[in-house]
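General statements about sequence and structure are easier to judge against a single worked case. For one protein, we set the task of working out the structure tokens from the amino acid sequence alone. The sequence in question and its structure tokens are set out directly beneath this paragraph.
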Amino acid sequence: MIYGEIYQSPIGALTILSGDKGIKAIKFYEDEKVKAQGRTNEMTRWAVKELEEYFQGKRKAFTVPCVPQGTDFQKRVWEALTQIPYGETRTYKEIAAAAGNSKASRAVGMANNRNPIPIIIPCHRVIGTNGSLTGYAGGLKVKEYLLKLESNLNF
């Protein structure tokens, strides 16, 4: 069974999908199908609570269980992303090395692009080698917002 909940965040509607064992996906839009079904569970409610605390600046690490689906390499990249401390960034090259292949920067970019659980698996913390913001599923303005939120910069 898939459960879903829509959370109206400061960056727009987020659709949170879960199974019984953890969060499966977060999408940057309001999924009408989820709205119509209205089936939430402990995991979706847990994720909403933690996301609310994150956006209020009260939470720096997430504890809600996540069960992202992907290749072994993608999962290693996503695990490496969860090791980036709140308020810090890493380059694609650094994440490639952490995932076990220092020459796989482009593959890291693709794994970031396919990250099913953004924010909780913080792919927004990955930047270009020259310090530039690069693509983000929620858009560069959202990425910039999240990075500023974590660095306590005023808007």
Q: What stands out?
A: The mean pLDDT is 91. Strands lie at 3-9, 12-18, 23-27, 90-91, 126-127. The chain has six helices and five strands.
